[in-house]
Amino acid sequence: MAEAGLERWESHRLVFEEYLEGLTFTEEPELSTLQEAMRYSMLAGGKRVRPTLCMEVARIFGAEPELALPSAAAIELIHTYSLIHDDLPAMDDDDFRRGRPTLHRKYDEAMAILAGDAFFGEALTLITVHQQGTPEQILAVVRELADSTGVEGMVGGQVLDMAQTGLGSETDPRTLRMIHRFKTGALIKSSARIGAIVAGASEPESDAVSEYAAELGLCFQIVDDLLNATSTTEALGKSAGSDEEQGKATFVGVFGLDGARREADESTARALAALKRISGDTSGLRGLALFVRHRGS
Amino acid sequence: MAEAGLERWESHRLVFEEYLEGLTFTEEPELSTLQEAMRYSMLAGGKRVRPTLCMEVARIFGAEPELALPSAAAIELIHTYSLIHDDLPAMDDDDFRRGRPTLHRKYDEAMAILAGDAFFGEALTLITVHQQGTPEQILAVVRELADSTGVEGMVGGQVLDMAQTGLGSETDPRTLRMIHRFKTGALIKSSARIGAIVAGASEPESDAVSEYAAELGLCFQIVDDLLNATSTTEALGKSAGSDEEQGKATFVGVFGLDGARREADESTARALAALKRISGDTSGLRGLALFVRHRGS
């Protein structure tokens, strides 16, 4: 993490955590349990990849990173809701996340479903009430989130992922890529694009940074699969080899270890190539792409 | 339903059903099951109160009712998602809705959670891509939905409702009103307000029609409680007296039969008074308010 530019991420993260910590949704005492449940989930830490990416992209295109905070927080709330719902007994049935009970274990299933649901409306409030910009810009931010959270986005990706579980290596490469493009890639790409929108970047530069982010999301997933297949449980902090046990569709299962490593390298190369089309200081994005590729190794 | 203006609702409903029938979300074969599940829920019929209210309000303020269709459909998709999630085993645990298996019975719980989730993104796409209007108008539509679907809206109302179940008549009147203002009132109010927004109505007239719709939503709920307490199961088409059995917080439980009837009359009077502040032809809205008050009696 000593590479030039990477210290910027920690600075964005601290600013973002402080903003998130200050968010409340109601002063009605009757609704305090719902609000506590939402804050329990959204303040659980984590790398905050999406919001800090949004802030860094805004910075690259000449805005103060703080300008992007309302939209960056909206993205993180939507990401948080997707984790809450994915953890539910009817889906991945996880009891723990980041070392703490998942929301349906801490409260109950109904609260977990509803807290997740409430995050979407609150995310929209952040954007439409608190994000600075022209109506055209704010609308473009909303449209970007609409794109990445519907059927051909985050939700459809989760449906595909669940449908493929059990099939393992029988999943075809096209479907595997589609799962991850929709499930995690879409919102990561939107994070970058929204940073570009609020900073008023040109269309070609927005496209370049979107392309970078799409590859970043893909590479992140491939490396996740590689780590799951090759690490010890101790080094990983979660059960190593669990993907294979569950018959999950993974890049290692479909392409083999060497094939998956090659896919990750190619994806990283495409991410770095996309950055060449941007005139600003992209050292932070370059550092992030290399970090994502080589983490854990 | 023979009262002047009421035939308009049927005309709006037919136009709306045709629009909804034409909505698709993806052409990816891998996502066809998700799309089928969503269409199963959204095409289950029903009165379509919210979208037709939106269309009628747009008409009153001088627009073609068809202008409001994308936003009206977005509202109905959000309403549909709330029904799907409310029916889940962890919430109301209903096996049937409108005589057909609920979505989690027809498919499974995971699909029901995810289909519900997907509706929100698709609703935003309808508004941001297909609704005609200035960027300011479209943004006002999104902000309206943000308001009515978050913590102090539909989701918070459902949380409050579940928290009060079992307490029955011990619920205080303020909490009871809050439950319904948030749970169903907020989205019904937004339906009217969004019709006014897309038609470019003035602020005072938008406020008047919002007030009307808030009272309409309240009266609808009070009459629902009255019917549940006084009808036979046969006449109601669902289990009569089920609210009391489940210990639900109802207007009849809190105010008694006569008190609840008085609340309904007062609410209707306020709804009709609000209409007087609108210069257009509000006979359809007037007829709807009277129909809602006297249905089943």
Task: Explain the layout of strands and helices.
The structure is a homodimer of 297-residue chains.
Chain A: H1 7-21, H2 32-42, H3 49-60, H4 69-87, E1 96-97, E2 100-101, H5 103-106, H6 109-130, H7 135-149, H8 154-164, H9 173-199, H10 203-230, H11 233-236, H12 242-245, H13 251-275, H14 283-294
Antiparallel strand pairs in A: 1-2
Keywords (chains A, B): Isoprene biosynthesis, Magnesium, Metal-binding, Transferase
GO molecular function (chains A, B): (2E,6E)-farnesyl diphosphate synthase activity; metal ion binding
Cofactor (chains A, B): Mg(2+)
Task: Report what the structure shows.
The structure is a homodimer of 297-residue chains. With 297 residues, the first copy, chain A, is mainly alpha-helical. The first copy, chain A, contains 14 helices and 2 strands. The longest helix of chain A has 28 residues, at 203-230. The mean pLDDT of chain A is 93. At the A-B interface, helix 2, helix 4, helix 6, helix 7 and helix 8 of A face helix 2, helix 4, helix 6, helix 7 and helix 8 of B.
